[in-house]
Amino acid sequence: MIGLALKQTDETWSVLHATHLQQFLEHPPSNPNSALTHRGFLWTRVPQPSVTNHAGIPAATVGIWITRILPFGTGSQVLRPGDLLTQLGAWTLNADGQIKHPVWGSVLFDALFLEELTLGTAIELRIWRNGREQTVTATVRPFEPNQALVPSEPAGAAPHYLVQGGLLFQELSLNYLRSWGSEWSKRAPLRLRLYKALEHAALETPSQRVVLLTHVLPDAINLGYQDLSHEVVEQINGLDVSGLEAVHKAFQQPQGKYHVIRLRPGADRRRLILPARALESANRRIQETFRIPQLQHLGS
């Protein structure tokens, strides 16, 4: 086996070399010191010569244009959008983000993170910024998907959820978006796709999540709300919710006789009200009616 074919464009194939595939398969996820390294930015080809001219970069300069900084990964702490990255360590980049490797030939620089770069070591990045060429030093950092606003989840992992009064709360994730099929980027609700598009913005906290009211299990306690689905939750009982743990805590603090759930603008209803005293018996009834083994799974 020489590698794994990923995609074909005209006469060009994108292939994951067997060496890289073997490293991925042997990566023990339980060992944080062996985490896969990763770049901490998004990039594109230089859009057009006028862009580099405006940035004061000589016309003959070759490199890649940094478009967005991720909340994790190598270079995320020292690069800025608008930088032109020309060299990564000893490796010079061409306009397509490729390097010349003595073994692999012409490959995308991402291949360096699979074998050449060691977690925790320093690496010099050669850039153009504000019309001046300079060198910045970055630390080789790992891929940390849980620091993304819309995280991915391991295949086969039990979903995290919480049910209160028949309202099913979940956190927005890539797996959740994929429930709309292979064309989820077109078929999923626009408001949810926008969170995915903005996920690489800096998070206030690494654990920040988008909480959704995904479905309503019909019961007398939630009459009038049973058509709601895929709505973004803003507050519960006056408390901002940034994850399921926050939802769990908020339901322990009713506003007087009621639990008040506020949804983000764009929802069919902005405010839902559940009677606090009736909630416990309603939860038991709903659990029995729908044969739910447990009303919450918040994860480890």
Spell out the key features of this protein.
8 helices; alpha+beta; single chain; eight-stranded antiparallel sheet; Pdz3 Domain; 300 residues; six-stranded antiparallel sheet; N-terminal domain of MutM-like DNA repair proteins; 18 strands
Describe this structure in words.
The protein has 300 residues and is an alpha+beta fold. It folds into 2 domains: 35-143, Pdz3 Domain (Roll); 146-297, N-terminal domain of MutM-like DNA repair proteins (Alpha-Beta Barrel). It has helices spanning 18-26, 49-54, 112-115, 174-177, 184-187, 190-197, 244-250, 276-289; strands spanning 3-9, 12-17, 41-44, 64-69, 84-88, 91-92, 98-101, 105-108, 122-129, 132-139, 161-164, 167-171, 211-216, 231-236, 239-240, 258-263, 271-275, 296-297. The longest helix is centred in the C-terminal third of the chain and has 14 residues, at 276-289.
